[in-house]
Design a protein that fits this description.
Helix content is 41%, strand content 10%. The protein has 761 residues and is an alpha+beta fold. Among the domains are: 198 residues, no CATH class; 157 residues, no CATH class; 116 residues, Serine Threonine Protein Phosphatase 5, Tetratricopeptide repeat, CATH 1.25.40.10. The strands form 5 sheets. Strands 1, 2, 3, 4, 5, 6, 7, 8 and 9 form a 9-stranded antiparallel β-sheet that branches. Strands 10-11 form a two-stranded antiparallel sheet. It has a two-stranded antiparallel ribbon with strand order 12-13. Strand 4 and strand 5 form a beta hairpin. The two termini are 43 Å apart.
Length: 761
C-alpha cells in the first residue's frame, strides 16, 4: 500500500478544507461584492501585476481555452485500472468520457484547468454542485523528460468505482479539498440535507485579493485626494524582515522587527490543516491569527518521517516551522518574490543572503566540488520528494543530514540520493569524520545535538533527552518529542506534558493535551478544564475533542458548565460538515452525550459523503457492536473486507469480531493478515501473536514477533510477549533477543529481572 492511501485512516487533520458559482460566476454575495478582481489592480500596480502573471498562483485554476488547456483533447483514449477514458473537444468546449461511480459510461464537461506545471488536472462537473478533480492528469513536462502524456495519479492502487480514491469520491472533491486555495473570495455553501453545494467565488484564480484582501474600499480611497499609500490594506505585507551581518559572524542577524504577517498569510494554503473557524480580517485586511482559524497538523507519522522530514504532501509550513530560520524570524518573502513566487536570487545566492558565501559556499563546508550537484545548498538541506508522480517538492525544514538516524528509523537520507552505491554506513562514517574535523571552524551544529537522535536512545533515556531539548527546538518539534515519548507512556512523560500546558506556545499546549489521553478521565479533567478557556481556539478545540471522548464518564453535575466548550467544538466541526471525518467526530460527540439516534444519523451521513471510506465503515460497524446489533456490524465489516484488500485496520477489526464469536482459528487468520499490512501498527502484531498462542500455534507466534521486532524495535509489549512465548516453547534464542532490549526499557520489571538471571549465560 502506498503512503498516499495511508491518509484514509486518519480522522480529522489530513487536509485543508478548502469565498462565480461552481457552475457560473456569481457576485451576488455581500462579501464577494467587496472584490474588484486582479485586473483592476494593474492600473496602479503594473510591476506587481506583471510578476503575478508569471506565477503558479495566476495559473492555479483557469477557465478552459486553447491557451489554458495543455492536455491532448484530440479524441485521445487511454486506459488505466481497466477503465477507459476519452478526452475530446467539440465547439471549443472540452469533455471527458469515462466511468462514473455507478460503473457506467458518462461524458463530463471540463469546467476548469487545475495547475499547469509539471502537471495539469481538470475539474469536472458531476451535478448537485459537486466539482471533482479528475485523477488522470496531463504531464506537462517536455517529452525529453518523460512528459507530454496522460497518466494516472494513483498508478499502484487498484482503483475501482468503489475505491475511496476513485475520481468521483470525496478525496477528489474540489469544493471541500481544493477550491479555497485555488480561488479568490471563496464561499463553500454546503447543504448538509441534500449533500450538495452552491459554491461561489470572486475570481477563478489565486489573485491579488487572495493575499491582500477585498479591495473595494482600497480602490475607493485611492481615488480620493487625501489617499495615503503607506496606510491600510495589509501594509504589513510590504515590510518583510531585514537581515544584516555583524562583524565576524557568518550568519546574518535580524536588524528589523519580526514580521509574521507573511507566515500568517501564506500558511492558510501552504499547510496541512483542519479549518475550525471562518477567517475574518481587520480593517487593514490583516487576517485572523492562523491558530484561531486552523488546527495545524503537527508531525504525525502518516505525514512526516520520525525525524521531521516530509513524507506525505504537507505544503511547507509544518516543515518550515521546524527550522532554525523560522525560529529566528525568517519568513517566506525573504527567499521568494511574493508576486512571482520565484526565488529572489538564483542557486546558492538565495542562501548566501544570510549564510556568508566565504564560509558556507565553499568545498570546506559542503565537501563537494564547486558547481557540482552536491555543492548546491538545497540538495543537502532541502531534499526533494516526488508527489503526484512527477511533482518534486522540497523539504523546508532545512535539516542537517543524519545518516545514523535515517538508518535507524528508515527515513530518507539526502546523501543517499547521490551516494546509493556507497550506502548508508559509508555516508554515516563520512559525515562523522567531517563534522569532527569541521564543526567548530564553520560554526555548524554537530549532528549529535539534533533532536531526531532521540530515536537512537533507549526508551528509559528518551524522556530526559526530550526534556533537555524542549527549550532548544521549535514548538512543532517540541510537540513531536512529546508524541514520541508518549508512545511508551510513563509517569515521567505525563509529568513533562503537564508542565507544557503552561507553555507560551499553542502548538506545545496542544501536544500536551494529547498526552492527557493516558490519564483516567477523573484525573485528567483537572488539567483539561483550564485549557477549555485557552486564548487560542485551536488549543480549545483539542481540549474539547478530548473532553468529548470523556463525557460519558463525567458526573452529570459538570455537564452544564462544560456546555460552552462542547458547543464551540460542535460549531467548529459543522464548519467542515462535508468532511466524513467531521461527521464521525459529531457522531462520537452524540454518543458521549447519550444520543444514539443522532449518532447514527452522523454515521450514515459520513457514509453518504464517502460510502467506502474505511474509517467511516469501521466506526459505523463499531457503533452497531456497541448497540448489540451483530447482524449489521458483520454486514459492514464483510463489505469493508471485500472492498479494501490491504488495510490493516479493516482486517484487525474483522478479526476481533470473530474473537468475540469465539471462532479463534478464523480470528487468528485475519489478525495475522492485519499485522502483515504496510499500514499495520505494533499493537496489531501483539494481538495476532496472542491469537496464535491461543490456538496452540506458539511457534508461529514467536516467528511473527521476531519479524515484528525487526520492523518495530523497542516495543515493550512485543518484546515481553516474545520472551514469554519463547520461554514457553523453549526457544532460548528468541528469548535472548527479547531480553537484550527488555533490560533497557523495563530494567525494574521483576519478570525481566528473573529472566535475565535465569538466562544470563
Amino acid at each position: 500500500m502506498t503512503y498516499q492511501v495511508s491518509i484514509l485512516l486518519t480522522l480529522c487533520m489530513l487536509v485543508v478544507t478548502p469565498l462565480v458559482s461552481a457552475n457560473t460566476k456569481d457576485n451576488s454575495s455581500s462579501s464577494n461584492n467587496q472584490y474588484i478582481g486582479s485586473d483592476a489592480c494593474q492600473n496602479c500596480h503594473q510591476t506587481e501585476h506583471q510578476l503575478w502573471q508569471q506565477s503558479d498562483h495566476h495559473k492555479a485554476m483557469q477557465a478552459p481555452s486553447a491557451e489554458s488547456v495543455l492536455g491532448d483533447f484530440n479524441n485521445v483514449e487511454v486506459e488505466f485500472h481497466q477503465i477507459k477514458t476519452r478526452f475530446f473537444k467539440r465547439d471549443n468546449q472540452y469533455f471527458v468520457e469515462t466511468t462514473n461511480k455507478q460503473g457506467e459510461r458518462q461524458t463530463f464537461d471540463v469546467k476548469y484547468t487545475f495547475g499547469f506545471n509539471p502537471l495539469q488536472q481538470y475539474i469536472l462537473d458531476t451535478g448537485k454542485g459537486h466539482m471533482q478533480a479528475f485523477n488522470i492528469a496531463w504531464d506537462t513536462r517536455p517529452k525529453t523528460q518523460g512528459g507530454q502524456r496522460w497518466y494516472h495519479l494513483q498508478p499502484d492502487e487498484s482503483i475501482t468505482p468503489d475505491h475511496p480514491f476513485f475520481w468521483q469520491r470525496h478525496f477528489q472533491n474540489w469544493n471541500s479539498r481544493c477550491a479555497e486555495c485555488h480561488t479568490t473570495g471563496y464561499q463553500k455553501n454546503y447543504q448538509l440535507e441534500t449533500n450538495s453545494y452552491t459554491t461561489n467565488f470572486a475570481e477563478a484564480t489565486v489573485g491579488c485579493e487572495s493575499c491582500h484582501g477585498p479591495a473595494t474600499l482600497h480602490q475607493t480611497q485611492a481615488k480620493s485626494s487625501n489617499f495615503d499609500a503607506n496606510k491600510g490594506f495589509n501594509q504589513a505585507l510590504a515590510t518583510p524582515p531585514v537581515w544584516g551581518f555583524a562583524a565576524n559572524d557568518p550568519i546574518a542577524n535580524l536588524v528589523s522587527g519580526k514580521n509574521n504577517q507573511y507566515m500568517q498569510q501564506c500558511a492558510d494554503c501552504h499547510s496541512r490543516r483542519l479549518p475550525i473557524a471562518n477567517k475574518t480580517q481587520t480593517i487593514n485586511n490583516a487576517p485572523t491569527d492562523y491558530h484561531d482559524t486552523n488546527s495545524l497538523s503537527l508531525l504525525p507519522s502518516n505525514l512526516y518521517f520520525d525525524d521531521g522530514q516530509i513524507k506525505d504532501e504537507v505544503f511547507v509550513m509544518g516543515s518550515f516551522l521546524q527550522s532554525k530560520m523560522a525560529k529566528a524570524g525568517v519568513t517566506c518573502s525573504n527567499c521568494h518574490n511574493p508576486h512571482s513566487g520565484k526565488l529572489r536570487l538564483p542557486g546558492n545566492q538565495t542562501c548566501t543572503q544570510c549564510h556568508s558565501a566565504p564560509t558556507y559556499d565553499l568545498p570546506e563546508h559542503h565537501q563537494h566540488k564547486v558547481d557540482s550537484l552536491g555543492s548546491q545548498c538545497v540538495n543537502c538541506h532541502m531534499p526533494a520528494r516526488t508527489y503526484m508522480q512527477v511533482d518534486d517538492r522540497r523539504d523546508h525544514s532545512f535539516v542537517i543530514p543524519n545518516a545514523a538516524v535515517s538508518a535507524a528509523i528508515d527515513s530518507p537520507s539526502a546523501c543517499i540520493n547521490c551516494h546509493q552505491k556507497e550506502g548508508v554506513s559509508w555516508v554515516a562514517a563520512q559525515l562523522a569524520n567531517w563534522r569532527i574535523d569541521k564543526a567548530k571552524s564553520i560554526n555548524m551544529q554537530a549532528t549529535t545535538e539534533h533532536w531526531s537522535n532521540i530515536h537512537l536512545l533507549p526508551s528509559t533515556e528518551q524522556t530526559r533527552f526530550a526534556k533537555r531539548q524542549l527549550s532548544k527546538t521549535s514548538p512543532i518539534v517540541a510537540a513531536k518529542l512529546l508524541e514520541i515519548i508518549n508512545r511508551q507512556p510513563s509517569q515521567e512523560s505525563v509529568t513533562l506534558a503537564i508542565e507544557q500546558l503552561n507553555s507560551e506556545e499553542p502548538l506545545l499546549r496542544r501536544a500536551a493535551i494529547d498526552v492527557l489521553r493516558n490519564l483516567p478521565p477523573n484525573q485528567g479533567y483537572q488539567y483539561l478544564y483550564p485549557m477549555l478557556k485557552d486564548p487560542v481556539k485551536s488549543v480549545r478545540f483539542h481540549a474539547s475533542s478530548l473532553l468529548a471522548s470523556w463525557l460519558s464518564q463525567m458526573p452529570e453535575t459538570l455537564l452544564p458548565e462544560l456546555s460552552f466548550a462542547i458547543e464551540e467544538y460542535k460549531t467548529s466541526l459543522l464548519l467542515t460538515a462535508d468532511f466524513p471525518t467531521s461527521q464521525l467526530s459529531l457522531a462520537q460527540l452524540a454518543l458521549a452525550m447519550g444520543d444514539n439516534k443522532k449518532a447514527q444519523q452522523h454515521f450514515e451521513q459520513a457514509l453518504i459523503i464517502a460510502p467506502h471510506l474505511p474509517i467511516a465503515m469501521l466506526s459505523f460497524a463499531d457503533y452497531w457492536r456497541q448497540t448489540n446489533n451483530e447482524t449489521k456490524e458483520l454486514a459492514i465489516l464483510e463489505k469493508a473486507v471485500a472492498i479494501h484488500h490491504d488495510f490493516a485496520d479493516v482486517f484487525h477489526q474483522y478479526g476481533l469480531f470473530w474473537v468475540r464469536k469465539k471462532e479463534y482459528y478464523k480470528a487468528a487468520q485475519w489478525l495475522v493478515k492485519a499485522s502483515e499490512q504496510g499500514d499495520a501498527q505494533p499493537y496489531y502484531a501483539y494481538v495476532a501473536a496472542t491469537a496464535l498462542d491461543t490456538i496452540n500455534r506458539t511457534t508461529q507466534s514467536v516467528e511473527l514477533l521476531l519479524q515484528a521486532n525487526r520492523r518495530w524495535p523497542l516495543q515493550g509489549d512485543l518484546l515481553y510477549s516474545l520472551a514469554l512465548y519463547g520461554e514457553k516453547i523453549k526457544n532460548e534464542a528468541a528469548l535472548k533477543v527479547a531480553l537484550k532490549d527488555l533490560r533497557l526499557i523495563m530494567p525494574n520489571n521483576p519478570q525481566v529481572q528473573q529472566w535475565s538471571q535465569q538466562y544470563a549465560q
